[in-house]
Structures are given as C-alpha cells and as structure tokens.
Design brief:
Blueprint lengths: L9 H11 L13 H15 L4 H10 L12 H16 L5 H40 L4 H36 L4 H24 L7 E2 L6 E2 H8 L3 H15 L4 H18 L3
Antiparallel strand pairs: 1-2
Helix pairs in contact: 1-2, 1-6, 2-4, 4-5, 4-6, 5-6, 5-7
Length: 271
C-alpha cells in the first residue's frame, strides 16, 4: 500500500493518540473498554467510511464489541485495526470478523506484557527513585517519578500506535489476494475462544458449599460437580447468562438476577 493511496494520515493518528489517553473514562462492567475504544478511533472511522453510512454503522458496531487490555498497550491494537479498516475499505480484502478476531487475540497477550512491565517492574523502580529523593528532603522526588514513568508511558502509546499502523499496512499488503486471511481469522478466533474459556474458569466463581451426605461420605456440591468436570458450574452459569442476553434480556437485568440468586443461595446455605 503506497503512501498516496492511504486514507489515514499522521494527523489522524495523532488525533487517535490524544483521544486514546483518556479512553478508559467510560470503562464499564458490560464491555469494559469497548466504548472508549470506539470513541478513540471514531473520527478516523468516519473518514474511512465517509461515503457509506451503512459501512460506518457496521464499523462502529464492530468496534463496540467487548475489549479490555492494559491501557498503555492498547495503542498497537488501535494501529493494526485501523490499518485493517482502511484496507477493508480500499481493497475489500479484509473481512470484518478478521478485525474483531485480531483485537481479541492481541488484547490478552499485550495485557500480560503491560501488567508485568509497567505495574510490576517500571512503577516500583520509578517510585523507588522518587521516594529516595523525597526522603533526602528534595522536592524533585514526585517530579522525577512522574517524568521517568511518563516517558515510558507516553512513548509506548505513541510509537505503539505508529508501529501498529505500519505493521497493519504491511500485514494487509502481504495477505492481499491469498487465502492467508481466512486461516488467520480461524486461528485468531480459536485463540479468542481460548481466552474466553480461561476467563470463564478463572473469573467466574460459584462456590457450592452445601454438604450432601454425612460422616466420611459427606461431600460438598462443589466437589461433586468438580468430579464430573472441573469448573463445570462457572461454565454453566456463563452459558446461562449468554443465553439470556441472546434472548434480548439486558445485561443489567442478568446482573441483578445473578445478585438475587447469590443472596438467596447464601441465605439457604447453598453458597
């Protein structure tokens, strides 16, 4: 893809960079960072699909899907998906499902990298430098901490976006006219489902402490279900919630139902 066929300019990317600094302001428990994600790239989506309102609506809907990753590491995903949106409009060789699949497959690994580097490595180092200066009576302590930390923070965001977009362009260019995209879509979809499976097993808890039997034969419902299949109840609860949402029941009502059942289960001694 040559420079004169690009829709997205450096100015557009800089706009995304600025808007992306606050893209977590609309974080919510339903889709987490999805609303902020879409808002961040919305001006560029409007530019890409300015001649086709239906395609713009489709792109907005696609980018309102569930999204959650480390906030500093989201920019490479912004860049890659914008390049894919651009390629979809210019050449029509990118499927919308592929864009969604790439987002899902990248957000987990980049979240892990961001957490381990920024929260558990860089932050303690920068805080240690700032505290040591402050302990010596210097007013530079908090300033040095903020300066060092945000050099990495802002630098990662900006260059992550630029490199993500460039990589996305090369990615689109290499797969044009081949069957690679279909295989990549299938692969990233599988990875995405694996991520959702892991999240279900680790983030959904259904502690069934009700005891069945007595004496040495006594077993909790949790042990019985785990004997059938570990984490069976979290899976069933997740599938049940998904089924209710698919039937048109709002996520707020599903959440309130889960809270009510949890309270009832605790009162009668099941949980």
């Amino acid at each position: 893809m040559t420079a004169n066929t690009n829709i997205i300019t450096k100015k557009d990317l800089f706009t995304v960079f600025l808007r992306g600094i606050g893209y977590q302001f609309s974080w919510n428990y339903e889709r987490m960072q999805a609303l902020g994600y879409c808002w961040t790239i919305l001006p560029v989506l409007k530019k890409i699909y300015k001649d086709d309102p239906d395609k713009l609506h489709e792109a907005v809907t696609r980018n309102l899907e569930f999204f959650n990753t480390h906030p500093f590491m989201a920019m490479p995903i912004f860049g890659i998906t914008l390049a894919m949106e651009e390629g979809k409009e210019l050449r029509g060789n990118i499927d919308g499902n592929a864009i969604s699949a790439v987002k899902v497959s990248l957000m987990g690994p980049l979240a892990g990298i961001g957490d381990s580097f920024f929260w558990f490595t860089l932050f303690p180092i920068c805080a240690g430098i700032g505290v040591s200066l402050s302990a010596g009576g210097s007013l530079l302590g908090p300033l040095v901490f903020l300066l060092i930390y945000n050099i990495f923070n802002i630098g990662t965001r900006y260059y992550g976006l630029i490199l993500g977009y460039k990589f996305g362009n090369q990615f689109v260019e290499k797969i044009s006219g081949s069957g690679i995209m279909q295989r990549i879509t299938e692969g990233t979809t599988i990875v995405g489902l694996m991520v959702l499976g892991v999240m279900t097993a680790t983030m959904v808890s259904v502690p069934l402490d009700f005891v069945v039997g007595s004496g040495e034969q006594a077993m909790t419902l949790q042990a019985i279900f785990d004997g059938v299949m570990p984490n069976l109840m979290p899976l069933l609860v997740t599938l049940g919630a998904y089924g209710l949402i698919k039937k048109g029941i709002s996520t707020t009502k599903v959440l309130l139902l889960a809270i009510a059942l949890s309270i009832l289960g605790a009162v009668v001694g099941i949980f």
